[in-house]
Amino acid sequence: MNRLLLKLDLTDFTNSFYSFLARKKPFFMQGDSHIHYRFIKELMAMQEIKRSEEVENLDSNLAHLSKNGTLKIYEIYSFVKIVNYFGYLKKILKEGELSVWMQKIEIPDEISEICGYFNEKGELKSSVDEKFAAIEHALKRIKEETSVALRRLMSNSKLSNYLVDRQIHYINNQECILVRGGFNHVIKGGVVGRSSGGFFYIFPDSVSSLKSKESGLIDKKEELIYQYAKKISSVYNKNLKFLSYINREFDKFDAYHARVNFAKSYGLDFVLAGNSSDIILSKFSHPALSDPKPVSIDFRKHVLMITGVNAGGKTMFLKSILSAAFLAKYLLPMKIDAYHSKIGSFKEIVAVLDDPQNVKNDISTFAGRMSEFSRLFTKKRALVGIDEIELGTDADEAASLFKVIIEKLIQKDIKIVITTHHKRLASLLATNESVQLLAAIYDEKNQKPTYEFLEGTIGKSYAFETALRYKIPVPIIKEARVVYGEDKDKLNDLIQKNIDLELEMRKQSVLLEEKLQEAKRAKEALYDEREKSKKEFEKSAYNMQKSFNEAIKLAKDAIKSKDTKEAHQVLNEAHKFKQKATKIKIIQKSEKLCVGDWAKYGNSKGLIKSIKKETAMIDCDGITLRVPLNSLKKSGNPPKKPKKVKISKPTATSSVTLDLHGLRSEEAIEKLDKFLSDALINGYDEVLVYHGIGTGKLAYAVKTFLSTYPSLVSFGDAPINMGGYGATLIKL
């Protein structure tokens, strides 16, 4: 583990994480990673929770208790710190899965009582036992007497010439005074220590009796503390299962809390390792880099082969992919766009990054690499990173060998990230569907790497350009180019042209995408504006119709009460206004329709046979209808299947009727026209229209209209029981 962290440059990062733990523990958390992830995300969404005090590892203490051993008082207090912390968590976590978890932890009363024995310094409180209180009081009195005795000595004129200062010093928790050499001529005492200036810290013999009393009291206190330690250890032994359980739960919560605090402190996020082997990174930044260029890669295939310029970031790109997989595996936070990222789960992560040759192991570079590769064949579901795969042997031989090795590893479901300058190996694997190519891009104009990458192509190494950048003399570079050969140089030129073409295509793709998005936004804006105008128009039309109906009602009421020409004029003007409004509505809502077009009328489709002014004749499944032109919507396709019309005959109590009483002729004919069209569509073969007898004008207008209406079988006065002369029975 430590070696992998070192190879991936994650040591400093993980050490920073360790500082957030209450006690150091492995990265791996046992149990379901999805549950761990949910707890972590819940903690991330909460306000800051107090960190626990540092706690030592208690495994050996638990083992000691299991053998009926007695713990030291500071070891007992370590358990007290854990129990007190969970008491705090139970109080503040009131909802969510964390609250459910905390409420399941029931602290035994006798353990809670023991927690009350200690103060914040981990010492037994004097209130625990009267003997403690008495000893503490006596020790305090002795310290005061000692201080008085020392000050009395310092006021002695004989000692004043030897005193360095008139303060009481504490060396090793013991009171003493600071004197010069020769002090033994005037005072007897033991030397406790030496100062940096060569003076002596002494404890006078005259106060030694007080010191003896103090030592005796301290011994009694220690004996009393031991008795309590023995008593508490006995209680701990009875509750050993609970202590073992809460010790594990503490590590679990500490692992969550440390991750969350670490993430919040550095602005990091979490990615849960999924079940697939896909690695999709969006804006991942390697923690070892101070100002990194974020890495984005969609790596779904088995092999990712990175080629291209020297010092172009290939190795760090490889480390970034492996590092992201490592951090996701152990649910450690990272700098990444977590929402758009996806990282697979791997049983093992292997980094083949360094040169295995050294004096101690007496192995060559290539032999060391072969040894590492041989071990890969024993791995399952592993992610492997190999830097400079051709290192240590003939490039042409290595290309053939590594091609076969890589293909065999693909069959074993090993996911591999490779960096190489070997164009032959890249070309041999380029046609393999399981291999993904990536090239580091070089800025030809400024003669330096861009630290960006291009998918689907093989990159140049730019060895000559890099050498020039690092001040290798130009004549040497020119001579090297001649030795390299024109054919290989032409191959590099072709590779570069391919890269330039791909970059240009990407640039054009970005521009086109921007224009497409702009067009979509404009389309959405126009649609919104159209919908807004439509709603405003419909609202205005509704209000206009409402006002019209109210005006008509008022006019009718006026006619009933007073038969005047003025009332009739008002009605005529209102109808003219309505016709004008209807025309406006038609202009705004109708589509341009022509004879021969298929049009939609309600839920039916029909072929337009003729258009006359504001009405149209349409053929719907063999039935000819005359309908308002503005009620039709253009439809490009004929109906798929003709609808079967079930014909039912109306009875005397049928609701297939229309009442035209009180309407003017024009308004009545308009309603009758629509009523008949709807009746034909619904499959009725007989309908009844009430118009009354009155002056006979309305009845005449109805029968005149019916005489020219298509799709009628017959019409005539209704039977006496259905309205007689005041109604017309129409057969369709």
Walk me through what this model shows:
- With 732 residues, this protein is an alpha+beta fold.
- It folds into 6 domains: 2-108 and 239-266, no CATH class; 127-226, MutS, DNA mismatch repair protein, Chain A, domain 3, CATH 1.10.1420; 279-484, P-loop containing nucleotide triphosphate hydrolases (Rossmann fold, 3-Layer(aba) Sandwich), CATH 3.40.50.300; 512-589, no CATH class; 590-644, SH3 type barrels (Roll); 648-732, Ribosomal Protein S8, Chain: A, domain 1, CATH 3.30.1370.
- The chain is built from 21 helices and 22 strands.
- The protein has a 6-stranded mixed β-sheet with strand order 9-10-11-7-12-13, with helices on both faces. A 5-stranded antiparallel β-sheet has the order 17-16-15-14-18. A 4-stranded antiparallel β-sheet has the order 1-2-4-3, covered by helices on one side.
- A hairpin with a 2-residue loop joins strand 15 (604-612) and strand 16 (615-620).
- Helix 5 (73-92) packs across helix 11 and helix 18 (486-561) packs antiparallel against helix 19 (565-589).
- It starts with a helix and ends with a strand.
- Mean pLDDT is 80; it is low at 358-362, 583-590 and 642-655.
